[in-house]
Amino acid sequence: MTLSPSSTVEPAIEVKNICKSFGFRRAVSNLSFEVQRGEFLTIFGANGAGKTTLLNILSGRTRPSSGTAKVAGFDVTEANPKMRKEIGVISHATCLYPDLSPLENLEFYAKMYGLDRPEECAEKAVEGAGLKKRRHDPVRTFSRGMLQRLTIARATLHQPSILFLDEPFTGLDPLASGALKDYLRSLHTDQRTLLMTTHDISCGLEMGDHIAVQIDGRFALMEPNNGLDPVAFESRYMNLITGGKEG
Amino acid sequence: MREYLNQIIAIVRKDFLTEMKTRELFSSMFVFAVLVIIIFIFTVDLSITRSNEVGPGVMWVAIFFSGAIGLNRSFMLEKENGCMQGLLLTPADRTAIYFGKLISNLGFLTLMEAFILPVFMVFFNIDLLPHFFPLLLVIFLGTLGFCAIGTLLASLAANLKTRDIMLPILLYPLMVPIAIASVRMTGKILAGEPLSEMLNWMGLVLCFDIIFIGTAVMTIDHILEE
């Protein structure tokens, strides 16, 4: 499946027939799609549909059992450091050291990404995340919303062109959720490619310019989001994930 | 190359910074090593056995046992909040991660040894000062081998549910050659023999140090990935 009409520019994400099995269970099943540069794809799906596995494959953390996937032009199975410079990942884990402060955490990651002037980068990112006042406090004392902001700052510290977000709105209050939406919009307008998985239908529809529904490792639906109605889409979505048994 | 070294230094700095804030690793390693020495003091009759015959064995047992605690804890730190995931997502070479963790572990264990040796001297009534430099070399070589293979195995065991049990089970059999050589060399040093008398043992330890580091460099990529 392709989201936009094919262009001469290489797609940001190109997936061809990828499968991933854990023992006898297939988490991703023969999945093919493309995401063009600057697009925002939202993937909906029930728990266990294979969304996180798909993101793990695309970010190079899990090898697919078969098939090929390219991200920013790099084969994900090659574990290319250049690819890792191009991507940012926000997963369920914050990837932050709880005993270190936001500044220390981000300075560490800036050094690991080989950024120039890591102290300055960390300082700027902490300020951008709105945590300047608490920049010296240990991260373990932070609320969920603050942690999520810092996690995004960590994932975007190296200015990646492609961002993978795995249920980023989980556990956030409406205020934090709104702030995160604004931040993601700003990243999207910067021509970054975003791929987000979520259970939150209204949020996902609001953010994504393309949507997909993943069921049992496959995309049961993939289409552009031309102002889809959340209520109508929710009923379609429920029909898809229950196999038409509901409603 | 500069970026590679900066990444190693960043990992070491981060580990020491965390330890300075929590003081969990050093204190648990030190207390455990002291306990091992005290237990041996009560179980070995030093009126029958000479201290410098049994002492080296006790010293290395204390170092290896407390070192295993340190190795386990060192990778637990990376598992917390999925930090290892974050590290693997950076463009850093996997061997840089290994060397960073190896230097951290070596640093913590060396620091612990600096504190445990005076305790050992007092309890076993052995004067280590006349043999200080040869002993320092032997302790460094033994500790390097222990940390080289220990860091690799700790990274492997970190993904297992039974990591606390698995690390010693995997580590101690591999440590046998280094343990034997280190204990023999320490015994000879305490008996006043010069280093030139123990070149074979030293060569053996050095060979294992190189083999362990080489193995780690070749396999760390696969171990840290899935």
Task: Note the main attributes of this structure.
heterodimer, A: 247 residues, alpha/beta, Rossmann fold, 6-stranded mixed sheet, 4-stranded antiparallel sheet, 8 helices, 34% helix, 25% strand, B: 226 residues, mainly alpha, 83% helix, 0% strand
**Largest sheet report of chain B:** none
Q: Which structural class should the secondary elements of chain B be placed in?
A: mainly alpha
CATH class of the domain at 13-90 and 162-241 in chain A: Alpha Beta
Shape of chain A: globular
Percent helix among the residues of chain A?
25-40%
| Rg of chain A, alpha carbons | 18 Å
Please give the share of residues in helix of chain B.
over 70%
Strand content of chain B: under 5%
Order of helices and strands of chain A: EEEHEEHEHHHEHEHEEH
Question: Distance between termini of chain A?
Answer: 28 Å
Mean pLDDT of chain B: 90
- Give the strand order, joined by hyphens, for the main sheet of chain A: 6-7-8-3-9-10
Query: What is the average per-residue confidence, as pLDDT of chain A, rounded to a whole number?
Result: 87
CATH superfamily caption of the domain at 13-90 and 162-241 in chain A: P-loop containing nucleotide triphosphate hydrolases
β-strand number of chain B: 0
Helical run tally of chain B: 8
CATH architecture of the domain at 13-90 and 162-241 in chain A: 3-Layer(aba) Sandwich
Order of helices and strands of chain B: HHHHHHHH
Give the chain pair forming the largest contact, with residue counts: A-B, 31 and 29 residues
Describe the protein:
The complex is a heterodimer of chains A (247) and B (226). By secondary structure, chain A is of the alpha/beta class. Chain A has 8 helices and 10 strands. Chain A has a domain at 13-90 and 162-241: P-loop containing nucleotide triphosphate hydrolases (Rossmann fold), CATH 3.40.50.300. Chain A has a 6-stranded mixed beta sheet, sandwiched between helices. Chain A has a 4-stranded antiparallel beta sheet with strand order 2-1-4-5, covered by helices on one side. The two termini of chain A are 28 Å apart. Chain B is 83% helix and 0% strand. The longest helix of chain B is centred in the middle third of the chain and has 31 residues, at 94-124. In chain B, helix 5 crosses helix 6 (132-157) and helix 6 (132-157) packs antiparallel against helix 7 (163-190). By secondary structure, chain B is mainly alpha-helical. Chain B is globular and about 55 Å long.
